[in-house]
Amino acid sequence: NAGVTQTPKFQVLKTGQSMTLQCAQDMNHEYMSWYRQDPGMGLRLIHYSVGAGITDQGEVPNGYNVSRSTTEDFPLRLLSAAPSQTSVYFCASSGTGSGNTIYFGEGSWLTVV
Amino acid sequence: SQELEQSPQSLIVQEGKNLTINCTSSKTLYGLYWYKQKYGEGLIFLMMLQKGGEEKSHEKITAKLDEKKQQSSLHITASQPSHAGIYLCGADIGNEKLTFGTGTRLTIIP
């Protein structure tokens, strides 16, 4: 039972480098999303997708890109990492419509130096 | 301003005592989720509430959604060290997105 799988779990980047956080789910969920978690700020939505080929911005999309070419995968790209992007990132998925449990990945700890 | 307010932000409780965490919205909550996060780890799903007045329990944790569907409370009875962590409420406020509160950090002391 994989559920939502995020990789890598830990990453250190230099300012200006780019990288991709991977997220995959095996539950055939339509809805996938990326959050970042910072102290005192709770979870903030970066981008989300309601199905393959459809993505939309959340609260804090700047500096991040996403794509959804398949139902299973929803990668998050940091185009040019900045220290302000040091955070813990969570990917989540669920069925669409209300009443569906939202499943989270285990998180990716990213440090930008 | 936060669409979902959680209170208190942190809580220190003696082992064995009861405690309550609140989650309040200015908008109708179409689905309210409670998660727990242990320090440095991922999110664990606790409960989901949808109907006004609904109450669910799991072991010593009870969550309620008020009749107006704008506030939820999470109550822990006879707290234990294993209850320590960060509790997050997340809600569907009708805009296709799941909004989260800022979290409540719970510490249990002997």
What does this structure look like?
The complex is a heterodimer of chains A (113) and B (110). Chain A has 113 residues and is mainly beta. Chain A is built from no helices and eleven strands. Chain A has strands spanning 4-7, 10-13, 19-25, 31-38, 42-51, 54-57, 64-66, 76-78, 87-94, 103-104, 108-112. In chain A, strands 2, 4, 5, 6, 9, 10 and 11 form a seven-stranded mixed sheet that branches. A four-stranded antiparallel sheet of chain A has the order 1-3-8-7, with no helix packed on it. In chain A, strand 9 (87-94) and strand 10 form a beta hairpin. The relative contact order of chain A is 0.33. Chain B has 110 residues and is mainly beta. Chain B is 0% helix and 56% strand. Chain B has strands at 4-7, 10-14, 19-25, 31-37, 43-49, 55-58, 61-65, 71-76, 85-92, 98-100, 104-109. In chain B, the strands form two sheets. In chain B, strands 2, 4, 5, 9, 10 and 11 form a six-stranded mixed sheet that branches. A five-stranded antiparallel sheet of chain B has the order 1-3-8-7-6, with no helix packed on it. The termini of chain B are far apart. The mean pLDDT of chain B is 90. The A-B interface holds A 33, 35, 40-45, 48, 50, 56, 58, 90, 92, 98-99, 101-107 and B 2, 6, 9, 30-31, 33, 35, 41-43, 45, 48, 50, 88, 90, 92, 96-103.
Strand content of chain A: over 45%
Count of helices of chain A?
A: 0
Helix content of chain A: under 10%
Distance between the termini of chain B: 36 Å
Q: How many strand segments of chain A?
A: 11
Low-confidence runs of chain B (pLDDT<50, min 5 residues)? none
Described by the principal axes of the CA atoms, the overall outline of chain A is: globular
Structural class of chain B: mainly beta
What is the helix/strand order of chain B?
A: EEEEEEEEEEE
Mean pLDDT of chain A: 92
Radius of gyration of chain B: 13 Å
| Series of H and E elements of chain A | EEEEEEEEEEE
Quaternary structure annotation: heterodimer
Rounded average pLDDT of chain B: 90
Number of strands of chain B: 11
Global geometry of chain B: globular
Largest sheet of chain B: 6 strands, mixed
User: What distance separates the N and C termini of chain A?
Assistant: 35 Å
Rg of chain A, alpha carbons: 13 Å
Q: Low-confidence parts of chain A, pLDDT < 50 over ≥5 residues?
A: none
